Amino acid sequence: xFTRASQHCARVCFAFAWLLLLFAxxxxxxxxxVSVLQNRYDRFNTAANLQETQLTTANVNRQxxxxxWTYAVDGDVHAQPLxxxxxxxxxxxxxxxLYVVTMQDCVYAFDADAPGAPIWQRxxxxxxxxxxxxPIMDLIHRNSSNIETWLGILPTPVIDSDTNTxxxxxxxxxxxxxxxxxxxxxxxxxxxxxxxxxxxxxxxxGSPVVIAPCFxxxxxxxxxxxxxFDGRLQLPRPAMTLVNGQVVLAWSxxxxxxxxxxxxxxxxxxxxxxxxVLNTSPxxxxxxxxxxxRAPGVDAQGxxxxxxxxxxxxxxxxxxxxxxxxxxxxxxxxxxxxxVLDWWSQDDYAFKSNIDADFGSTGPLLVPGTAEPMLxxxxxxxxxxxxxxRDLGHKVNTSHAxxxxxxxxxxxxxxxxxxxxxxxxxxxxxxxxxxxxxxVCGCSSTFRDGHSLCASTESIMQQNSFTHLxxxxxxxxxxxxxx
Length: 483
Description:
Layout: H1 7-10, E1 19-24, E2 66-72, E3 82-90, E4 93-101, E5 106-111, E6 120-123, E7 134-135, H2 137-140, E8 150-151, E9 158-160, E10 165-175, E11 187-197, E12 209-210, E13 214-216, E14 226-228, E15 241-243, E16 246-251, E17 263-268, E18 274-279, E19 297-298, E20 304-307, E21 327-332, E22 339-345, H3 349-354, E23 365-367, E24 374-378, E25 383-388, E26 395-396, E27 403-406, E28 416-419, E29 428-431, E30 439-442, E31 460-462, H4 466-476
Parallel strand pairs: 22-26
Antiparallel strand pairs: 1-2, 3-4, 4-5, 5-6, 7-8, 9-10, 10-11, 11-12, 13-14, 15-16, 16-17, 17-18, 19-20, 20-21, 21-22, 23-24, 24-25, 25-27, 28-29, 29-30, 30-31
């Protein structure tokens, strides 16, 4: 789960308390016409922008590439900022807009071409009425190493360009009676899904709606054979996604604290009615979905791919249970809803769970352009597993993986990025494990046949000096942006 050791991955690109920094070419800031509507650019989770036109290996360097200006925001930013190019506001007004959310429960829309006040701002707090972001000490009774002081808007939102809507999940503490044990007396903890107009910030589709799913089970926190969502214990770490007209969210816990469960819930994007729910440990606890903040992978058929972390009860699916500990889960979303199609886990999942070597630390990457859809997943122990996305196997069997790729030291918590290079060059995989340097894996010449990805399990190249690291990063920055 999201533990003390994973503090570095919580500090994403803009984890400063008061400033958001915009980087571009100081001489002539021309922003991209390519919108960034979700976490890591695309539904495959490649983390690559292949349509970059302004940045090249000639101008991304210490002399020409740097800070242009700052935007003032009111709290930590853990979510990836999003960007809409050429947004038409009417009356001939067209702007490039940057969207930022903070752990103070605020949403900002900035003019991306100029510094200054936001175009609009939404604040979901009401201190006079006692509505504030959830103090993290209400959950774990101390400041966390990866979330300090407040839990407000944590996951990366998602933007629907068809309806000009941004979907945001906000956590608040407010006066009332919490229906579950724990927390500050006289307060309740509420998580709400907001749908906002990207031009004005005004609520849409009857939003917000309170997150309140329930699932049949006898696990921790169950009452009369039903487990219900606890807004205090559940940490909404993974980025949000849109698929088949549904907004999909997922939850884990914080620092493995308390009797949390893994939850995956979907909502109709126009009515915000709940369409599907999966609890990954309904007869147990934990098995959270955190994936270091990544969104699930989405294939061409609209199927979702999630990873889960450690769990305390190993009455897992192959043993007749319903606990998806340390697993990859494939979910069908068409027709609307969430249905388990397939899953896979490792032989030693129980051992790795007991030593907190989470399998669910990286988030899935669907490899584009292969004859057989391939899924790349990883774990804290810095091993990447290549799977056939069409046949995860319904089994706990490490050898069912098409290939295992071991990184050179360090816990893998940032996930893998995939750069499909132009000019007939073979793609590259990039990983940056904790406590190590950037590592690069060259794809094999036959990888598109769907049998292996890297040329060998020893093909990871480690950049072992900062000079080499910078030179190599610059060589691919013009079209590739690891986030």
